[in-house]
Every structure is written in C-alpha cells, then in structure tokens.
Amino acid sequence: MGHVQRVFEAAGIPTVGINIAAFAHVPARMGVSRALITDHPMGRPLGAPGDAVRQRDVVAAALELLTSTAGQTIVSFPHPYRTAAAHPSA
Amino acid sequence: MTTPESESPLTLKGFADSFFYGSRSNLDFKFLADLADTETADFFEGLLRELGRTLNDGDAARLLDHARSWQRRAYGAHLDSKAAFAYDDVPFSILATPLAETRVALVTSSGHFVAGDDPKPFGVGQMTQAEAEARIGEFIRAEPTLSRIPVDTPADQLRVRHGGYPIDAASIDHNVTLPLRAMRELQHDGIIGELAADAYSFVGATSQLKLRERVAPLWADELHAAQVDAVLLVPV
User: Are residues B54 and B115 in the same domain?
Assistant: First the structure.
C-alpha cells in the first residue's frame, strides 16, 4: 500500500494511511505522506470487531491528518487496543 | 515453505515454522517462523504465564498485550531487514479544500468484494480463504485486481478473502479493515464533505513492482475521473 500512497500523492491526490504498530517503521521507510499508527493487532487496524466508537475515532484522527501541509506527517493514535466485549458501551 | 513434520522428528524450529502457511497455519502468529528458537521459547513461556494469571482473574487484557507486543517485536526486528523497498523522497500533495468540503474515497488492501463480483484470482471462482493462503506465493507475483464497493453495500453482501492477513475479524465486522460505517457517519456529521460513491479494495499481498509501475497509476486516473479530492488508505 505504500506504493499506492506514493503514486496517488505524485498524481496530486492527498492521502493518509492507517498503519498498525507492528508496521510502524514502514511509512517512514517508504516515504509516504501521512500516516496514523494504531497500537492494534494485525488484521484489526481500525479496532476490534464491533467497536464502532474506536473505529470511528481512528478514521476521524486519520482524516484530520489530511489537512497537514508540513510534509511527511506520522502520528500515533494515543489509545491502546481494546475489545468491544470489554467496552460494552462501544 | 516448511518441512513436513511427519517425515522427521518435530523440532522447535519446525513447530514455529508450521504457523507460517504450514500445517498449523495461523496468520495472526505466522511471525513465529521469523523468531530464533530462544524467542519462540520466550513467546510460549510468556503466553502460558499470562494465561495462568488469566485463569485467576479472567482479565484477558494481558493476552492482548502479549499478542501485540510480539507482533511489534517480530515485524520490527525481523521483517524490516528483508524489506526490498525504501525511498528517501516523500511525494506530497496538499488538500485544496477544507476537509468539510472534500470528497474522500476509501481504498483498502483488505481483499473485500461484493457478492456476485468475485475478482476470481487466477481465474478461480469462489476461491476459499484456505486456497488463497495456500497460493500466497502466486499472489505476491501477480497483478492486483481492484474491487469497487458501493459505499451503501449491505454488510451481508460483502465478502473478504486474503491470503496474507488474519481475516477472521474482518469476517465478523468488515469495518475493521473496510470502515464504511465510520466514513458514512463522518459524512453525515459534516466532518468530510462527501464520501465517494465507491470504496475500493484489493489484495495487498501482490506484486509490488506491478502495483507501482502499472496498476496504481491506473487507479489514480480512475480516482481523478471520479473527482475524488483525497483518499483514506487502509493497509493490512
């Protein structure tokens, strides 16, 4: 996906990616424009199944990075992984 | 990729390797094949210690921590050294409009598609997840196919198949790798101006050179034609 991000940016389309912590080193290495790093496990980059609140919060935080004009912008999402079962209000 | 265990005595290395597309294939823990024997021992020793504690209080949070911390450790330390692609430059475009006036498209490498629109990898219709995992070596040499997913597609019409990552969470709730619900909500609330009519998904385990040189530029053309202003990417 790093290549997709680079190609889109070069074509004039601003992008932001959501990467999990296991691959936190990839965005900088591949020279992508904007990335939000979540401390979520592989296969659940937006959050746990059923955790609609977390999924929305992650997407909103990533979209906010689209407004960055400062060159490569890599930010960590500040909240640890959780399951929907442990957060019934989610 | 792994030595058939039936033909030789089981070793710790053979056991660890079997989680990587072998007899114990498990995409959550395929990184075990990249660990040194001492690390594999540490992983299981720690797992059983935390499991024992969980028997006392039922608090599984420590198991989540164990899985995540070992994924970070394994991929950070081991896969990075194999990385074929690194770039010094950063292609960067600036958003021309405020976010609340921007048309945003979602592009994910999750392997989702709409029922009845199977991308049929290698000409195979209704390929199972197990077959996709077994053919991962072919996927990473082939050109990816882009699936177009209308953003109002009902959840029960979505399918997911991807030989490179554990799809069980995405099978329960597509939003963990294809966040259509969150995007629709953010559009409804005016955070983004508009959600593009189609989301896009492909299998990210694919030929990186074909993706970079041929396919992604075509996708950029398609996004321009759809008057997309910005893209949210979900790599898996």
Answer: no
- Whether the Cβ atoms of residue A34 and residue A74 lie closer than 8 Å to each other: yes
Q: Give the count of domains, chain B.
A: 2
A24-62 core/surface letters (b: 16 or more CB in 10 A; e: else):
bbbbeebbbbbbbbbbbbbbbbbbbbbbbebbbbbbbbb
B73 & B168 share domain:
no
Q: What is the ipTM of this complex?
A: 0.96
pLDDT 10s digits, A44-82: 999 999 999 999 999 999 999 999 999 999 999 999 999
Confidence of residue A88 (pLDDT cuts 50, 70, 90): low
Q: Are residues B200 and B103 in the same domain?
A: yes
Interface test mutation site (partner B, options A59, A68, A69, A81, max chain B beta carbons within 10 A): A59
Among B34, B56, B82, the domain boundary falls at B82
Task: For A21, name the nearest residue in chain B, comparing CA atoms only.
Answer: B72
Of A20, A55, A64, the CB nearest to B179: A55
Mean pLDDT of B108-122: 97
What is the value of pTM for the model shown? 0.92
Range(s) of the domain holding residue B61:
5-82
Amino acid present at B103: R
The verdict on B170 and B215 lying in the same domain is yes
For the record, the structure tokens of B156 come out as 């029960």
Q: What is the pLDDT of residues B162-186, one digit of tens each?
A: 999 999 999 999 999 999 999 999 9
